[in-house]
Task: structure prediction
Amino acid sequence: MTWVGIGLAAAMALVGAWLLFGDRILERSRAGKGPDGPRRPSREQFRGAAEREEEPPPPPPKKRAAIIINPTKVEAVGAVRNRLAKVALAAGWDEPLVLETTIEDPGFGQTRRALAQDVDLVCALGGDGTVRAVAQEVAGTGVPLGLLPAGTGNLLARNLDLRLDDLEHALTTAISGRNRHIDLGWAVLDPTSEQRSGADTSASANRHGFLVIAGAGLDATIMENTSEELKAKVGWTAYIPAGAKGLLGDRFKATVSVDGSAPESITARGIMVGNCGRIQGGIEIMHEAKVDDGILDVVAMTPHGLAGWVGVAANLARKKDVTNNRIHRYRGQHTLIELEAPQPFQVDGDVIGEARVFSVRVDPGALIVRVPGV
Result:
């Protein structure tokens, strides 16, 4: 009887528990949970999760280059586009964004449009003017500049010892080469008092970037008097007739102040401010100039007559920067040049107008250029 009583008591306890908690147990069961917590997922659920984990992640977007091309410097733009696309695709990059310069815009606006599309690289395909326009907009953005030489001078490429005769090699270097930080020069024509002091460095119509040389007087006159047609036919030797004609031109009085020093008075035929020193024909105007030293080199040519120019030539041939009564040299980060009368002024071969006062500053390391890897 004792065991029967115990059994009946246990049965009655179970019935009571079910009456009290049965509804809750059923609700948890419908929700996929047991009375003590979540139920174990089914095999089908495990199989689906494993399959989802095995799905590869989507590939990262391909990098893309923009190429700002001067159509007057190539024979067939369409063929060049195809050649460039093959190089980019072979390197695993997307097809390049190609934008052509115009007479009205030599590359400034095109570069801004390319940067607005978040490209990884901007290349300049053209001469020194195209490179200058692209570099001015790319400077300070952190986007590298690739050089695809196609002009007469190609002076920045020459100063960086880049190859000039292989477009595919140039783009490969731009895509896979190493970054080199170089300086950028800024020339301001007839600057305001704020621009003279450096307090105002904002973009303005009288502010122009340059990579190689900016100058007033003789060199600007030579650039102005040399035709594009002649340059296309005979290359850099097109500058010789204009240069010979200008050797005995009028001299002008000027004062030169470097980094706030007292102005020095000179009488010159031409004044050049260089970021690097190699010009057309491989001539070294400034032997000490380096494209990444944070310094601008200034050369004022002050010869008298043909004999004086012979002395200048001998000075340049020494491969050493010497100051004498034919050549005055200065070095610094900021140069202020004041003339007695307006003179033509050029930046990297582009004559941008006349002015009586020029303020020229260096922007150290402002530009990233792609060069061959070590």
